[in-house]
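Listing S7. Sequence submitted for prediction.
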Amino acid sequence: MNDLIQGDRLKELLDEVVTPYLSPLGLKWRGDYYWIGENNNSIRKVFAYNPSKGGMGSFSYGVCLDFVPLRSGSTLRYCRTDKSVKEHIWVNGKDWISQWTDDNVKDSITKAIKRDMKNIEAWFKKVHSLEELRKIVYMQIKREDIYVRYPSPLYVQAFIEAKLDNIDKGLELLEKYLSWSHEKENIKELLVSKLVKTK
């Protein structure tokens, strides 16, 4: 019988297979679908498993920035605790992972993490500074669909510029983002206020 592996059993398999690959990179399993690193100059390395429809999933890896707020209901929240970590900048893994028993879920997870490890290690080596992250986000703005990703690379770059003391550039990028986003007026005002206070 082709059963779908999900919930606690899926998390157990992910921890068993993935954690040994990520521990040497300084990432620890959070107990769900995230592996997180320590905050280093406002930057946290993040690795995630993303379940999707149809009993499939994929990996992504990136960084969480503690000075970039994200929408939470009618307000904004920073990602500064282990529990609140999210990916602000990320790259998608190469493989889809099957959660169906007939496809051998453990083998599917193993194949995906093995195939991506060189890219993961190389990417994490580049993200030690905001200047390097600015370059990555700039390339994503040129290549990716900035209107679909959340948070948009344009939005993230605005806060990176502000953090690097380029407030005017940050405001310019934020205004560009807000011109097509569907953010409510109170959120728009909050965002401008928070960006100006970014340090």
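Caption to Listing S7: primary sequence and predicted structure tokens for the chain studied. Strands lie at 28-29, 34-36, 43-52, 56-65, 70-72, 75-77, 89-98. DSSP finds six helices and seven strands in the chain.
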